[in-house]
Structure formats: structure tokens, C-alpha cells
Write a structure and sequence with these properties.
mainly beta; Lipocalin; 13-stranded antiparallel β-sheet; 3 helices; 11% helix; 58% strand
Length: 284
């Protein structure tokens, strides 16, 4: 069992090296000169940041994502599956809800991202799934009425291990994305290498006829080209890596478009930037 686990990780490391070479060419310094409406980072990549409050140097941005998707073919332990991803992401600018407790309104919405994508879920073994994916969509700056095309691709890996009746999930993701605008000859990029560990505990707690599971997780984010926050200010912050810890509650009753939703909260800390993250589904 241990040998198989190490072999799986070795394969993923080879993929990691390959994608790292791709993501390092070129390392666009042009990202630091972007005029980002959202203030914290290039709004075109908001879909990859995830739902949460992004706080730095007194500035706050609230990013919220609606994770719509459609299963084209259900993955099994032996057959691959296809999933169409249709996430819609909104960026709300200088949102003061952390202090006031008020909900945002549409007048505060500054950015909109629609980034459809396709995932190919390949079961290498019943416990290990590898997922190549590609995205192609657009981001719109509602204040400046600017459209930007976004292209992204990468690979994810999930290994599930049973531990004393509970479940440990090791997740890895490599992502490379770029944006294209007819108003600029620069094509800033976004590169991410993500490693996460989730420990899910089965409990006797019951809601809606289902036993509730509790999980605790840790994620490391590594940005090969540096992620730049506060890009339009005199003192942009370059983030090379970040760490996140949090918890979630899984197997909850169905709600709206969410089936067996998993809801949670996490805190991501890096140099100069703190993220209070709201999540649904696996944290990575």
C-alpha cells in the first residue's frame, strides 16, 4: 500500500516538473503594472482566487463565486467521467461588511468573471483520481467597461486513504492561466502549485437523515511567478507562497443547486495579505 502511494506521488511529481517548466515561460513582470479595478490583484483571475474576504493594508475586497457545474458522464472506480464547470464570480470593491455586518448590494459589484471549463476525471485506481482540465472564458470590469479573455489549464490529483474509519485526502493542483485584452499588448499570467491535506471524521451527528462529517484541512499555495496584490498602488505586494488552515462540515442536506453540500471556513495567511475564505466542496 505504501509503495503504491509513493509511486502515485512520484508520477505526480513528474507532471509537476513538466508543468512548472511551462508556467515559468515567460515569468511576466508585466503583471505588476496592471490596472486592477479590484485593487488586490488582477481581476481577470478572480475565478481562481475563490470565495472570501481579501484584506491588505486597510483595503478589502469580497469575492463570491457561484459554483455551477454539469456532470456529462459520472466517474466510477473504473470508468472516467466528464464534468462541465460553469462558475460565475463577482468582485465587490472596498466592501465594509467585515465591520458593519451588512450584506453587499449590486452597486458595489465591480467585476464579473464567467469561466467555463471541462474536467476529465480519470480513475488511476479506486483511491486515486487524476483530473486534467481546461478553462476558457471572460472577465469584465464593470466600472471601466473592459472585457478580458481568460485561458487556463492544468491538472489535479486526489488520493483518498482510509485511516481508522475516517478519510484522509491528499490533493495536488497545478494551474497556469493567462489573459488577453485587445487594449494591451501584455498577456499577464497566473501560475499556481497547490498541495492540500484534508482529514474527514465520520460522526454520529444527524441532519436531514444524513450523518454529518467534520473535516480539518491544510493547504500550501506556491506561486512560481509571484502573485501580485495591490498592483495599481505605489507599494504592490508580491506573494510567493501562502498557507491556509480551516474546517468544513460535509454531507449536509441538499440546498438549492448544491447536492450533499460541504460548507466550511478557512484563513489563508501570506506576506501582507490575509484571506478569510468561505468554501463549499473540497477545500482544494
Amino acid at each position: 500500500m505504501l509503495f503504491k502511494f509513493l509511486a502515485r506521488q512520484a508520477i505526480f511529481i513528474y507532471l509537476f516538473i513538466f508543468c512548472l517548466l511551462i508556467s515559468s515561460y515567460p515569468a511576466n513582470a508585466g503583471l505588476s503594472s496592471l490596472k486592477s479595478t479590484a485593487g488586490l490583484t488582477n481581476f481577470a483571475f478572480a475565478s481562481y482566487l475563490g470565495t472570501g474576504f481579501y484584506v491588505s493594508s486597510g483595503q478589502k475586497v469580497f469575492v463570491i463565486q457561484l459554483p455551477f457545474d454539469h456532470t456529462i458522464k459520472q466517474k466510477t472506480d473504473t470508468e472516467a467521467g466528464w464534468v462541465l464547470k460553469l462558475p460565475v464570480t463577482f468582485g465587490l470593491l472596498d466592501f465594509n461588511g467585515l465591520e458593519s455586518g451588512n450584506l453587499p448590494n449590486l452597486n458595489q459589484v465591480g467585476t464579473l468573471t464567467f469561466l467555463p471549463g471541462i474536467e476529465y476525471q480519470y480513475p488511476v485506481t479506486p483511491e486515486w483520481t487524476v483530473i486534467p482540465f481546461g478553462d476558457y472564458g471572460f472577465a469584465r470590469d464593470l466600472n471601466n467597461k473592459t472585457n478580458i479573455l481568460v485561458t487556463g489549464f492544468g491538472i489535479k490529483s486526489y488520493v483518498k486513504i482510509n485511516h481508522k474509519g475516517n478519510q484522509v485526502t491528499l490533493g495536488n493542483k497545478i494551474l497556469y492561466a493567462t489573459e488577453h485584452s485587445k487594449n494591451s499588448d501584455q498577456n499577464p499570467d497566473y501560475a499556481l502549485i497547490e498541495t492540500g491535506l484534508d482529514y474527514q471524521i465520520h460522526t454520529e451527528l444527524n441532519a436531514g437523515g444524513r450523518n454529518i462529517d467534520l473535516s480539518f484541512y491544510y493547504i500550501n499555495y506556491y506561486y512560481p511567478n509571484n502573485l501580485i496584490f495591490l498592483a495599481q498602488t505605489k507599494n504592490p505586494i508580491r506573494v510567493g507562497s501562502a498557507n491556509e488552515v480551516g474546517f468544513s462540515i460535509a454531507n449536509l442536506p441538499d440546498f438549492l443547486f448544491l447536492k450533499k453540500p460541504r460548507l466550511g471556513f478557512g484563513v489563508r495567511i501570506s506576506s501582507g495579505v490575509t484571506v478569510y475564505r468561505l468554501l463549499y466542496g473540497l477545500p482544494f
